[in-house]
Amino acid sequence: MSGRTQAGVCPERTCVGCRERAVKGELLRIVAIEDACVPDPRGTLPGRGAYVHPVPACLDQAVRRRAFPRAFRVPGPLDVKALRHYVEQAQGCRQAADTSAEQATR
């Protein structure tokens, strides 16, 4: 035997907010366009990417730690308004889906 496993390998990334490793599909890719952090849910935008859990807590930690300028290697702060709006909207959709699924099981 070669010592290799037959299971497929899932790429992992580190969340810049909480610094935990997770499967790439669980994290939201972010890119810097000009002076703003822009969400890239499809992962197709060009340039250096950073990853964060799509929850407000991880986003707040990343902003507080100034992780985005460091990850993108840019001087100065980056605008995170569009990113925050996307995360809050996604959080609201997840909560609504959880509520409807919970009601369906009753």
Automatic annotation (TrEMBL):
Domain of life: Bacteria
Record-linked InterPro entries: YlxR (IPR037465), YlxR-like_sf (IPR035931), YlxR_dom (IPR007393)
Any Pfam family matching the protein: YlxR
Stretches assigned to the YlxR domain: 13-77
Protein known as: YlxR family protein
Species of the source: Streptomyces werraensis
